[in-house]
Predict the 3D structure of the following.
Amino acid sequence: MSNAIAELAEKAKSSKLDGRSKELRRLVIGGLQGARKGHIGSALSLIEIVRVLYDNTLNYKIGDLTWPERDRFILSKGHGCLGLYAILADKGFISKDELSTYSKEGSRLGGCCEELVPGIEATTGALGHGLSIGVGMAKGALMRKRNNRVFVLLGDGEMGEGSIWEAALSASKHNLTNLITIIDDNKVQLAGYTKDISCFGSLADKWSSFGFEVKEVNGHDIQELESVFEEKPKKNPMAIICHTVKGKGISFAENDSAWHWKNKISDDLINQMYVALEDY
Amino acid sequence: MFRACMNMISEMAKTNPNVVLIGCDHGPGVELSEEIQSRYFVEPISEANIAGMATGLAAEGYIPYILNHATFNTRKTYEQIALDACLQKRPIRVVGMGGGLTTAHLGPTHTAIEDVAIMRAIPDMTVVVPCDADEMTRLMPHTLTWPGTIYIRCAKYGRPIVSDDKAGFEIGKSILMREGAILIIANGAMTHRALTAAQQLSDKGIECGVLHVHTVKPLDKNIVDYVKKARKVFIVEEHTLIGGLGSACLELLIDHSVPAELPPIYRWGLPDAFVQTYGDQDLLLEAFNLQPEQLVKRIIHSVESEGAPFEIAMGKSYDDV
């Protein structure tokens, strides 16, 4: 890991959370109260990414979800959906009360994203699908001569899927400058550290070699995210590697693969999570 | 048949601006119209991505046709077809060239012996197996408006032409090509072989009908009535006996009739084994006792013996028995 990358990773670890980031995380914790299980660490690492996208970057109309000019956002790491549900509830796509139905019988808020939920563009959960769908949407937008952009958020562990790299080839071949690939590089996957399991080496070099314009940012820094999401590449598709922390905001859950997914979450543990978040 | 399919896509693109054709390092084999050129992509060898990309285009209102060998376009694309196309109702058209034993010269990697079964198992999927180039030409306009994802098996070269324009074409509606007390049910490359066998049987005094079931899913419920009226039924398919046309028909019959109403039914197809030999479609169909003359012998034997169905062990011909 180069010094610059190590520095970004350290900044991600030490980033403080403001009131809004904590409020969104409270929504995530609240979502656990029904089913008492979920991909918590995976949801908490992406909060600032979706916050900035929905607060600042994406063009959308809550009253017209099929507006053709809307920007598309696909959460390819569909298991991190509790983080997406939180911002969708915050923005009014769904109600905050509905969050507590997450993963429960009869709910439309499943343990992975489904496009039947207002604001969700693609059903994901089987990893490695989102970028190809995004390639098609981005190509379609260009063919329709529309100016909307397509954002696809991948997990770092997800990049072991060969289809991701197939899609990268295709995005590059078609010069999809309207396709923005975001990597939630939280460095931990279900079975342990991504560096031990997937051995990707330099992600920047990989994406660059596939013809992408690559940016690296602290994925918990609001200003850095706002700035990088506004960039519009002229020639190549863009990949933004966001250095994040798995379980960000809950000190005892951070960087721990045991919090990738957790079940049998007690009232006591939920209270501990709220306390840890307030103390962060 | 594949060329007829490509020609139709090219033609349809002239008047429908949403038609998109995506090849996987494979061309259409025909000269495409000028109108489709900007909507025709030859992608890297990346089947899963192509299927997923097609669903993204479908989300934007396009009608994507993805073309590849039947094996690769079903096995390597399976999850994308199931989850991105069918589950999310973003219809794509999956063109499987070289279905069945058509590309037997390339061996087991290219012989599509279970493609119908695996495609049929996906909810909301449509599976069509036309019998010749003319029928392919009649099918294709329906693919512009059909609501679900479609797998189109191109299971032979275009000739001989046995379908008739007068019979029309409707997805999900089988065609009785010939009437007779004995009934052969077939599709794809087996339909013209069934018709040839039926004629030879007729010459021998056995009146044999042929029901062409070009759509394996959704399956025509009228098949139940055709079967009930028959004295014996033979379902022949260029596919293993697991999950293909025969399985589909038996499932339908069990669900929509009582056993006492049904005549004896026999299924003849490919063995539950990879095809680890080479040759061409005709040679291999002969090896599996599915050529017309062999069908005739087997049917005669079955008709004359009212006992148990007559089956042939793998690797043996009828004459060996």
Observations:
- Chain B has two domains: 2-153, 165-305.
- The first strand of chain B starts at residue 19 and ends at 24.
- The domain at 2-153 of chain B is CATH 3.40.50.970 (Rossmann fold).
- The CA atoms of residues 198 and 208 of chain B lie 5 Å apart.
